């Protein structure tokens, strides 16, 4: 995809979004609409999805998968989008105790099965442990199907 190649050439990875940042959801309109070079369906392997409630958390889980989109910000908007998404996801930097989510580079699968590295916001370790004990798992890993 051209947009992904452009962002990678500009020094930035695309983002895998799986909840309120997906096209049609409210945070996509606030943070991404009009600022992307490309958006395409994708899946995050080895992750499970939990209802927050109100917003989702992905956690590492071998054998599971999360449904979402691979979003490539335009080169001109990349730095601003990265900073805004870090604030939205309450990511303060690697291994910071106040993180709600950790931003990690993970392989994501396009619909044709090819893998691409992307930024993914996963639940910070203390939140992930709590979700695995008491959280509400979203069967099938698709936030848009959570009420079905």
Automatic annotation (TrEMBL):
UniProt-recorded name of the protein: Gamma-glutamylcyclotransferase
Domain Gamma-glutamylcyclotransferase AIG2-like: 15-144
Highest rank taxon of the organism: Bacteria
InterPro entries the record matches: AIG2-like_dom, GGCT-like, GGCT-like_sf
Matching Pfam families: GGACT
Signal sequence region: none
């Amino acid at each position: 995809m051209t947009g992904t190649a452009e962002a990678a050439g500009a020094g930035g990875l695309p983002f895998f979004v799986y909840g309120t940042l997906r096209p049609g959801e409210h945070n996509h309109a606030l943070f991404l609409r009009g600022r992307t070079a490309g958006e395409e369906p994708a899946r995050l392997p080895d992750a499970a999805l939990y209802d927050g409630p109100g917003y989702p958390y992905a956690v590492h889980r071998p054998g599971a998968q999360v449904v979402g989109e691979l979003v490539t910000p335009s080169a001109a908007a990349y730095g601003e989008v990265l900073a805004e998404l870090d604030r939205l996801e309450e990511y303060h930097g690697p291994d910071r105790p106040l993180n709600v989510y950790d931003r990690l580079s993970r392989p994501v699968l396009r619909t044709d099965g090819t893998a691409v590295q992307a930024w993914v916001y996963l639940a910070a370790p203390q939140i992930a442990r709590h979700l695995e004990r008491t959280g509400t798992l979203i069967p099938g890993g698709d936030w848009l199907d959570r009420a079905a």
